[in-house]
Design brief:
4 helices; globular; five-stranded antiparallel sheet
Length: about 110
């Protein structure tokens, strides 16, 4: 199982988990849900639900990944498998992401 903190404008909004079977869960923190001034991180991950499940990486996060030659360079340089979307997300969305959302890896448990 691998986990990552999801930051919205440098505030921790929730947790993204990749389970051992390859499925994913995104969960908003209780404090984020309780604060009416905090928005959902995406239209596809609205704050009205606290936890989301998917067999694949959520489209919102998948769309943060590089494509084509950029993906190949990043994967080769960081020794990441081309099909390891979670690993690629950890590398590319840590510091240099478009928009307000960043993804910070939590060490493997």
């Amino acid at each position: 199982m691998r986990k990552a903190k999801i930051l919205f404008k440098d505030e921790e909004a929730g947790l993204l988990t990749q389970h051992d079977n390859g499925s994913f869960t995104f969960r908003y923190h209780d404090s984020w849900i309780a604060d009416s001034t905090k928005p959902g991180i995406s239209l596809t991950l609205p704050k009205k639900e606290q936890e989301f499940h998917s067999e694949f990486l959520f489209p919102f996060f998948y769309n943060m990944l590089p494509e084509g030659p950029n993906k190949q360079v990043v994967c080769k340089y960081n020794r990441i498998d081309l099909d390891d979307y979670f690993g690629l997300l950890m590398i590319t969305a840590k510091n240099d992401s478009i928009g307000a959302v960043r993804v910070i890896k939590i060490e493997d448990l």
